[in-house]
């Protein structure tokens, strides 16, 4: 009888914990903030893609689905941020348009490797220079 009570207790505890939904993500105290720039002018509306855990430049020809995250730059300085980045080595790849040439926009590209380390570098704040 005692064995049966133990089985009931364990199955009850398992069903209790099985009903709780596991969190989708755990927010990290990490952040990447960049300003996209071309000839000292801000590049607003640039799409910045992030490839997590990569030592190798991913290239400019990959589709958006290849990357793990993305965000747009904006505001008067062409800045943008992305929070809760995992620890490790990552790459940024940005695509934008040169806003100086209104009649014939020129595509701009930029890339930058960066590292997030919770102990020494949890936040990165930098400029991403873009060119034709």
User: Which class do the helix and strand fractions yield?
Assistant: mainly beta
- Tell me, briefly, the overall form: globular
Unreliable runs, pLDDT <50, ≥5 residues? none
**Count of DSSP strands:** 8
Q: Beta fraction of the residues? A: 35-45%
Helix content: 10-25%
Succession of helices and strands: HEEEEEEEE
Structural Rg: 22 Å
**C-alpha end-to-end distance:** 78 Å
Count up the helices: 1
For the largest beta-sheet, the strand count, sense and barrel status come to: 4 strands, mixed
Query: What average pLDDT do the residues reach?
Result: 86
Comma- or semicolon-separated keywords:
single chain; 132 residues; mainly beta; four-stranded antiparallel beta sheet; 1 helix; 13% helix; 40% strand
